[in-house]
Amino acid sequence: MILNSTSKFVTLLFVLQVSVFSLHAQIATGKWEASLQLDKNTSLPLRLEVQKGQAEYAFTIVNAEERIALKNLSQKGDTFTLQFPDFNSVLKFKISKKKFKGYWINYNRGNNYQIPFSANLAGKTKKTNNNTDFTGKWKTVFDVNTPDSSFAIGVFSSKNNHITGTFLTETGDYGFLEGAITGNKMYLSCLDGSHAFLFTGELNNGKITGKFHSGTHYSGNYQAIKDEKFELKNPEKITYLTSDEPLKFEMKDLNGDVYTYPNQELKNKVVIIQIMGTWCPNCLDETNFLKQMHEKYSDKGLEIIAIGYETPNTFEEQAKKIQLLKDRHQLDFQFLVGGKADKQLVSKQFSMLNSISSFPTSIFIDREGNITKIHTGFNGPGTGDIYKTFVKETEELINKLLNQR
Q1: Are the C-beta atoms of 103 and 118 separated by less than 8 Å?
Q2: Contact 38, 215 (CB under 8 A)
Q3: Distance (Å, rounded) from C-alpha 262 to C-alpha 26?
Q4: What is the C-alpha separation between 367 and 333, in angstroms, rounded?
Q5: pTM to 2 decimal places
Q6: Which residues 6+ apart lie within 8 Å of 178 measured at CB?
Q7: Residue 168 above 80 pLDDT?
Q8: What domains are there in the chain, each with its CATH number?
Q9: How confident is the model over 14-52, as pLDDT tens digits?
Q10: Contact 181, 9 (CB under 8 A)
Q11: Residue 189 burial (CB < 10 Å; 0-12/13-18/19+)?
């Protein structure tokens, strides 16, 4: 069983505007201890706070630095539904004064992908000291002793019984993880709307051994040892050119019109081509970064082309998902529809490259149309200084390419 103390952590912020008249008699304000029940013996903890203003309620789950606002509250009978803003999933639950009970439903995995969700009004918590320190950089192996084993890096900061951090892989990071320490055991989790992650681990003789759960569809073992010098593969060397074949493609834009690359409008422009999907949290992190770069440098000649690969089967539904993302985040650059979310399809479309192994993958092109860098994956704000270093170095590259004449 996950210990009760683990309910002191997790992530997200729900800010939803709800009629006080319809709910004030049912909801108690304050801190709530929430969880997703992954299986009979494993729960993924969440901490929920409910506040009441003059005309609305604010539901808040705080996970490290991340804030996610759930929207579009609807009610059918005694059941309430809240939508995650960027991913096709909802919380559906019933409410009483001291309990919420229902499901998190992830429609990207089908209408029947439901994980039980519950929350209880929290009591007083006691602060405790803990001498087990997980702070540092940990060389990690997922799926130990299996054909699917892979390396990652755990980056943690811990104090007393509280721990934050994330895992970095060659395709991206696991977002803002937060949790608790009990004795020599640690628990980390997050729910971002696309994924529900839970990591448990026990530190003995300098080694963490533990288990990783992704929702109810996957679980596997991992091991980690502290290693400040360990590095993953360089993300700029995973995907590369394999022929002299020029970069060119034809795809439909969101209106169904054919868009051809290269074209006259891009002549003498610096271009970033982003291979992404609206279902992908790492892609969303990169999209937010690219938005900042486009707003800052578009008038100096930077253009961004985002190509979305989506879970629905039809062009219309694929374009609809991309349009929703574009509108929600006020993205003022070119979006195209690549097709189904299939790495083999993308690799075939970009046959001048060895392969596409990750969503996202970004291609940087200079003013003369030459590929100068291909970046596989994306480690976002949850990685702290690693993300800050990436932002600094990438902005320096963009400036260098813009200043080349």
Answers
A1: no
A2: yes
A3: 58
A4: 18
A5: 0.89
A6: 9, 10, 11, 63, 64, 162, 163, 164, 188, 189, 190
A7: yes
A8: 4-121 (2.40.128), 136-226 (2.40.128.120), 249-403 (3.40.30.10)
A9: 444 444 445 544 678 888 889 999 999 999 998 877 778
A10: no
A11: buried
